[in-house]
Amino acid sequence: ELKTDLQWTFKRSGEKDEGILFLFTDSQIANENFLVLFNDLLASGEITDLHTSEDRDTIRNAVRSSCKSCGIVDTPENLWSFYITRVRKNLHMSLCFSPVGDELWSRARKFPALVTCT
Q: Tens digit of pLDDT for each residue in 27-46?
């Protein structure tokens, strides 16, 4: 499932501070809802409801020592912000769409971040 793959990439890029390239082609779009996730990620650097509250607590605990070593106070908000900053730094998205036909343009109108935030 796409959400599981995205959780894994977020974990590697945010918790482990590793560079990740996520490659996705238009032929892999099984559901238009996939594009909602990508649109959110490109627009804000986060995907709403990608992580449960328990997952968020686990993530905060995983980045706590790195956050402290950077001199950041370890409040829940600071820990989450530190994690998302790492994700934004390390996670690179490569979305490959065919320009043939009207599908790309239709998707660009529905999901503007696919075009404006790349």
A: 998 888 889 999 999 898 88
C-alpha 31: how far from its chain's center?
Answer: 18
CA 37 to CA 72: how far, in whole Å?
29
3-state SS, one letter per residue, for the chain: CHHHHHHHHHHHHHHCCCCEEEEEEHHHCCCCHHHHHHHHHHHHCCCCCCCCHHHHHHHHHHHHHHHHHCCCCCCHHHHHHHHHHHHHHHEEEEEECCCCCCHHHHHHHHCCHHHHCC
> Do the beta carbons of residue 39 and residue 112 sit within 8 Å?
yes
pLDDT in tens, 54-111: 999 999 999 999 999 999 999 999 999 999 999 999 999 899 998 888 888 999 999 9
